[in-house]
């Protein structure tokens, strides 16, 4: 698992790893997977693609791993795509909804979370149909993550015959949002889709309020709504599209099990930790159905079967609606 354990996005990586290890530790205490323990090897990339390449090469050539699991980010995943294509190592439950990981050209990829296309459609429908906005701007992290979500947002706007009034950008792993704020304020956007991590987006929202600029906001789930909301200190109306439910307000049996399993760790439950936990549940469930030693094709086959059943686990993610098989949830921050 190559993820951010340092830098301004480290809370996302730390919480994903914690959630996965909560379940893996539980399974290891119960004799592991067919008698074999699970070793989650963590490597810090600071959410910088060049570091992810170094980590991935070490995983493949030195550590002889079975799979790359729970890695964080679109630019980081994009950077290692040539390695993934060449070695066909299973790339499981990446923390991204990037388009290139959601098509048949990469059969070694398994996604648990919804795509950014699904999240973009939900956000634009919210702005246009529910909030009745027409002047919508975009505030975009300037990298592969930002460009991919931007493309999906623009396409979702086209469905309603709308173009963004402004597209402003900022640098990854920085909170220098002043130019983007000036452009979007000048555009008089009444609503803004935010694409980035929690620190720069919170800085944007707080700074905009201080300048008497108060549009409605949305963000994709990658932001970590838990960490974003903690940092918003000014009145704001924010909707974040989510790919898992809030485990604190969820009746699904896996939510209840997660709350029980996290209790000894003395930390508050949130969606990011829960997603890491569910990633581990999926991996263990599939691996337990495969013979030892673990076979990559068996693992991927069993993972894909998770979405074809009607279990409590599948119900967390399946919409059971034609044309879209992944649920989108919402969280809100409202303050006046």
From TrEMBL:
Domain Leucine-binding protein: 2-308
Keywords from the named record: Signal
Domain of life: Bacteria
Pfam families attached to this UniProt entry: Peripla_BP_6
Family as reported in the entry's similarity comment: Belongs to the leucine-binding protein family.
Name assigned to this protein: ABC transporter substrate-binding protein
């Amino acid at each position: 698992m190559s993820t951010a354990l340092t830098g301004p996005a480290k809370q996302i990586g730390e919480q994903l790893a914690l959630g996965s290890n909560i379940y893996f530790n539980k399974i290891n205490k119960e004799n592991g997977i067919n008698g074999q323990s699970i070793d989650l090897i963590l490597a810090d990339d600071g959410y910088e693609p060049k570091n992810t390449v170094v980590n991935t090469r070490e995983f493949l050539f030195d550590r002889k791993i079975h799979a790359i699991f729970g890695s964080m980010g679109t630019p980081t995943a994009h950077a290692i795509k040539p390695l993934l294509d060449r070695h066909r190592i299973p790339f499981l439950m990446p923390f991204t909804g990037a388009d290139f990981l959601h098509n048949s050209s990469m059969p070694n990829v398994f996604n648990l979370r919804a795509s950014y296309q699904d999240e973009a459609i939900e956000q634009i429908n919210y702005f246009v149909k529910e909030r009745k906005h027409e002047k919508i701007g975009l505030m975009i992290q300037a990298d592969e993550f930002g460009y991919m979500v931007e493309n999906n947002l623009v396409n979702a706007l086209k469905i309603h015959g709308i173009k963004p009034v402004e597209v402003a950008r900022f640098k990854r792993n920085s909170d220098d949002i002043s130019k983007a704020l000036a452009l979007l304020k000048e555009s008089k956007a009444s609503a803004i889709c935010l694409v980035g991590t929690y620190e720069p987006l919170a800085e944007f929202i707080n700074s905009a309020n201080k300048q008497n600029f108060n549009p409605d906001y949305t963000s994709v789930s990658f932001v970590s709504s838990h960490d974003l909301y903690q940092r918003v200190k000014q009145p704001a109306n924010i909707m974040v599209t989510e790919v898992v439910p809030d485990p604190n307000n969820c009746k699904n049996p896996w939510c209840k099990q997660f709350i029980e399993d996290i209790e000894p760790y003395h930390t508050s439950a949130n969606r990011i930790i829960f997603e890491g936990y569910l990633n581990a549940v999926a991996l263990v469930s599939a691996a337990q159905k495969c013979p030892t030693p673990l076979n990559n094709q068996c693992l991927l086959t069993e993972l894909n079967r998770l979405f074809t059943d009607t279990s409590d686990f599948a119900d967390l993610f399946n919409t059971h609606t034609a044309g879209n098989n992944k649920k989108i949830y919402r969280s809100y921050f409202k303050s006046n």
